[in-house]
Protein: DUF1640 domain-containing protein
Amino acid sequence: MANWAFTIRRATATWQASRPLSSQASGLSPIELHLAFTSRARARAREQPTLPSQTCREISQLVKTNGKRAFLVDTLALVRRLEAQGVPSNHAEAITAAITEVLNDSLENVAQSFVSKMEMQKSEMIQESNISKFKSEVQSSQEHHFSLLQRETEKLRTDIEKMRSELRYEIDKVTAGQRLDLNLERGRIRDELANQSAETSSLTNKLDREIHALRAQLEAAKYDVIKYCIGTLVSISAVGIAVLRILM
Structure:
């Protein structure tokens, strides 16, 4: 809308400079009269102080034309229509040229806000290359981490085997020491049992000898007792016989 307003304003500026608005109103439609009054009001507003040139610029500054123009309207029909409304031929041509220029500038401004097919294909190729590069980087990173994990796994496995062998060696060493101690203890116990058996045998023999000696002594004492008893009986018998003889 701003482009169209600027077009009508610039197109009617020359026309209004040649004749007053009252004379123009006779051969124009109500819409064109409204546009004329609007353009004059904007012309007056433009004469007032405005912002610096850095913040406001003309529509022609938005686009740098490349010399290739495409006519979006039927310029001849537009000129004929303006002439039919009472616009002079040169003014109608100026208005038509201004409208065509503004439309082309607007089209170029709109075209600059879009991306061409070639640029889109180029961007897609760049994105695909970036994606493939990212995939390769991810794959290489995964392979690197996988190789690191494999090395760490092999290292851990080697350490575990080493620890297992050391533990087995220590277990065998402790088992051998315990076996040796058990053998030594068994030999000592065997020696002690042999010594006790020998002592028991010697005590048994000693007891047997003492028992035989006591038995022999008892036999000798028994013979002595029998001998003394017989001697006593004989003496008593002799004394008795002697007493009987005396008494008789």
In short: Residues 2-115 form one domain. Confidence is low (pLDDT under 50) at residues 17-31, 47-67. The radius of gyration is 73 Å.
